[in-house]
Amino acid sequence: MRSHYCGQLNETLVDQTVTVCGWVHRRRDHGGVIFLDLRDRDGIAQCVVDPDTAEAFANADRARSEYVLRITGRVRLRPEGTQNANMPTGMIELLGKEVEILNAAATPPFQLDEHGKVGEEVRLKHRYIDLRRPEMIEKLRLRSRISHSVRAFLENEGFLDIETPVLTRATPEGARDYLVPSRTHAGSFFALPQSPQLFKQLLMVAGFDRYYQIAKCFRDEDLRADRQPEFTQIDIEASFVEENDIMAITEAMIRQLFQEVLDVELPTFPRMTWQEAMDRFGSDKPDLRIPLELTDVDDLMQQVDFKVFSGPAHADDGRVAALKVPNGATLSRKEIDEYTKFVGIYGAKGLAWIKVNERAKGLEGLQSPIVKFMENVVEELLDRVDAKDGDIIFFGADKTRIVNEAIGALRVKLGADLDLYTAPWAPLWVVDFPMFEADDNGRLSPLHHPFTAPSCSPEELKADPAKALSRAYDMVLNGTELGGGSIRIHDQTMQSTVFDILGIGEEEAQEKFGFLLDALQYGAPPHGGLAFGLDRLVMLMAGAKTIREVIAFPKTQSAACLMTDAPGEVSADQLKELNIRLRQKAQADAASE
């Protein structure tokens, strides 16, 4: 129906007759001459219709915002003084000879160029309108280019694109499963995959030594800016590899991706152990663009009588950390109070601080309600954090986990609020993760998943599991975990040892993972892989604030689709087929009896 997209019209087509199709972005009537800005996925073209062509003019006169039109006409240069150098099509216009209304449109719930004035709920309710915005089209176009680049790279490296099941068995992988009742097996359920983890390992056992998939994954967990109940994963697995092999392949893929799509050459990917990341930044995904670091001061605070500091400093699971902010003494008391409320979100009971006004004056040059409690260590403290006049020092004192989360988050917030970023992109690898983490009752659970290989023997793992490190690695970019992976357990003895430590008995292991344990008996090769969050990757590359902006039809933070009203009720007949009776309905029936 068309010869060109609107965005393809340019000076090379002057005096040629073309046909374009699209939506009316804007209509203007200038004293008998009608201007229609026609929009499609490729851009916007200005079309001019004058009264000389009566039928075309009549249709242009009827057209309104978001009407669907087909316009045929001659491309010409815009008159001098009306050209728009900011538009790709701004040097030309289309003199319309034929204007056909393909479909009328009701008044849209919001104007596309005024989307910022309406709430996100309105835009998600009418997502098909929101997606017409050029900004949204560009984000989804970017997503497509990213997927294409990834596929091309992996295919060139010998990886095979292999699909894995979506209806599978529920297995514990760290989040709640989405369950699907089976009609043919009453009382039994499928689970939607949290990841293709077990199937890609089985593919390695089967001999497909280089696998990838851009896979849909599902996790029923609380949502946030970079989480959705269904998300997309670039899933990669390979056999006969070690950590460095997987890291080299995937780093090369990300480097090529940024070069091809954004024309950006990423800087060096440093490697940092998990422990160093937690000590220096309070996070296992540190944003290295922010030049602020946590400094341990436990030894100093053990010497003071201030129990708020000395208590955690002496505790086995406690930490006292200082965060120096250069030139931060200009922060007002109101701003400091706001930061105190902020760290409270992470469990911190308060936020102590010292402003360094004139260090040469000793205690008199310091401003803080806590200085009087640490006179005997204050000079050593200032030396340790390298404090200068005009700096402010914040403190976290509590359990190590709370200090890391609270002061680590404060570091990121200060970086954003004070615009402390030193580079546009800061990638790194985080390695040497703990194999397990303990809950408040001391019960161990896998930090990643129970198929991650430890960096020690089964005997050493069994002897001291709390200190064991895993062969896991995460790629981090600008404080966001882009992807995580590990070398997997390929030996049945090691897998059984891990299950024993986790309290998973032989019977339970066979029930939940029997097919994997069986497969490990039949010549499983050493293997490992990595999975990238495609949505997060696109979010970062698009400069978007949330992954909802780069997903065509996302859910809200309550895991609902406002456009389709999902999740929704189903009919009694459908429930009966599935042998399901709702508790609320059952109670109502019992009450009526």
Write the layout of secondary structure elements.
Blueprint: E1 17-30, E2 33-40, E3 43-49, H1 54-62, E4 68-77, E5 92-103, H2 120-125, H3 127-130, H4 134-156, E6 160-161, E7 179-181, E8 189-191, H5 197-205, E9 210-218, E10 230-239, H6 243-262, E11 271-273, H7 274-281, E12 294-296, H8 298-301, H9 307-314, E13 318-325, H10 333-344, E14 352-356, E15 366-367, H11 378-384, E16 392-399, H12 400-417, E17 427-431, E18 436-438, E19 444-446, H13 458-463, E20 472-477, E21 480-487, H14 492-501, H15 506-520, E22 527-533, H16 534-542, H17 572-577, H18 583-592
Parallel strand pairs: 3-5, 6-9, 11-17
Antiparallel strand pairs: 1-2, 1-4, 2-3, 4-5, 7-8, 9-10, 10-22, 12-13, 13-16, 14-15, 14-16, 17-20, 18-19, 20-21, 21-22
Site (Important for tRNA non-discrimination): 30, 81
Domain Aminoacyl-transfer RNA synthetases class-II family profile: 140-554
Pfam families: GAD, tRNA-synt_2, tRNA_anti-codon
Which descriptors apply to this entry?
5-stranded mixed β-barrel, single chain, 8-stranded mixed β-sheet, 22 strands, 593 residues, alpha+beta, 18 helices
Strand order of the largest sheet: 6-9-10-22-21-20-17-11
Number of strands: 22
Oligomer: single chain
The residue ranges in which pLDDT falls below 50 over 5 or more consecutive positions are none
Backbone CA Rg: 30 Å
Domain Aminoacyl-transfer RNA synthetases class-II family profile: 140-554
Enzyme class: ligase
InterPro entries: Aa-tRNA-synt_II, aa-tRNA-synth_II, aa-tRNA-synth_II/BPL/LPL, Asp-tRNA-ligase_1, Asp-tRNA-ligase_1_N, Asp/Asn-tRNA-synth_IIb, AspRS_core, GAD-like_sf
Site (Important for tRNA non-discrimination): 30, 81
